[in-house]
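Readers of this paper often ask what the protein records in our data store actually look like. Below, we set out a record of this kind in full and without editing:
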Amino acid sequence: MRAAGTALLAALAPPARAAASYAFDDEDARRWLEYRPRPRPGVSLADLDTAGRKAAHRLLATALSPSAYAQAMTIIALEEVLDRAEGWRRGRHSGDYWVAVFGDPARDDRWAWRLEGHHLSVTMTLVDDQVSPAPIFFGANPATVRYAGRPVSRPLGIEEDLAHALLDALGPAGRAAAIIADEAPADIISATRARVDGPIEPLGVPADRLGPTGRALLDQVVALYLDRLPPELAVQEAARLDAGQLHFAWAGPTRPGQRHYYRVQGDDLLIEYDNTSDDGNHAHTVLRRPASDFGTDVLAIHHRTHPH
C-alpha cells in the first residue's frame, strides 16, 4: 500500500499532485465520508492521464480483494448506466471519482488515503505500517439491471441474498426479535457522519439466540463484508470480533424486491445495508468500525508509544 501510494503521487503532474495531497492532520478532509454526488477533497480521475488513473486503480486494489475490486469497478461503471436512465441530464460519468492522500507515504509513519465518488468510498489509514481499514462504502444504482427478468448486473446481490437467507432461517421467534420496524429507514443510519457514537438502537436479535443454521448464516454475512478486504486484512478484522457478541436487525418487508434494511453490530463493528429508494432498486452498504474509523485505533497506539 505504501509503495502504491508513493507511485500514485509520483505519477501525477505537479498541479494534480497538489490537488491530491493533504496534511495528515487535516481532520476535516481526512475524516470524510460522502457517497452522494457532492464536491469532495482530492483530484478527479477524469483530470488525470492514463498513468495517473492506473496508479489510482492500483492503490485501490491494495485495499480490496479481487471480488470486491470487481464490485467497485462495476459501481463506477454504473454511473454511465444511471446517466443514460436519467436522460443524460446530470452529466454523471465514470471519471467522477476522486483520490486524496494525507501525509507522505514515502516518508511518514502516519498517512492515509481515500478513493471516493458516487456510491463508492474506501478509506485506509496507516500508522507505523499498521492498516486501519474503514469506512468502506459500496452502493449501486440501479441495484439490478435485468433482461427478460434475469439479472445482467447486480453488484451487491450477495449482500442482499445472504441476509434474506438469514432472515428465513431465524424462525418465527427469531424474526420477531430481529425485525425492528415494519418500514425501512430512508438510508443507512450512520449516513455520512465522520463518527458513529455507540451502538444503534434497537439492537435486534443477539447471535447467541440463533440456531446453528442462523448463526452460520450470520457469520457468512459478516465474512462477506470483511472479505471486501485483502485476505491478511480480513483475517485481522475477523480476529477482532472473535470474543464479541453480534446482533442482527431488519426493517421493512421480508419479501425480496421490496424496500428493506438490515444491520449487523458487534464490538467495534457496524455493517449496514439498505435498498429503499427507486422502488427497492437502489442499494447502499457500509462496513464501519465505530470506535476505530479513520485510524482511531492505530493512532491511539502510536500516541502511547511515540510521545509527541
In short: The chain is about 35% helix and 25% strand. The longest strand covers residues 110-117.
